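Supplementary Methods. Inverse-folding protocol.

Structures were first reduced to a discrete structure-token string of length 97. This string, shown here, constituted the complete conditioning input.
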């Protein structure tokens, strides 16, 4: 999700659609979208079809890569949210990045 300086939503972009166990996140595609819409902030999210509200090592790794890449363009990653049928998990609230 792309947000402007006032934290208003200015765009949503689907980066990938995964298989049963994983998906590929191309950081360049994420960064390009956010630059194209002139975002100041970003929130990334994905689902866990299993219903598990646990953050994985790959989730943390992708978050850190996205955050580092966006920093080069003065775009702040505000959160990475995991969504399930049972609720959600905020990586920001749980200090995972």
């Amino acid at each position: 999700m792309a947000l402007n300086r006032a934290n208003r939503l200015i765009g949503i972009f689907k980066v990938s659609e995964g298989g049963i166990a994983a998906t590929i996140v191309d950081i360049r595609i994420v960064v390009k979208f956010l630059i194209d819409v002139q975002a100041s902030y970003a929130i990334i999210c994905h689902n866990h079809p299993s219903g598990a509200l646990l953050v994985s090592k790959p989730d943390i790794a992708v978050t850190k890569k996205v955050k580092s890449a966006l920093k080069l363009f003065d775009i702040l990653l505000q959160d990475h949210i995991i969504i399930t049928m049972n609720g959600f998990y905020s990586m920001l609230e749980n200090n995972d990045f």
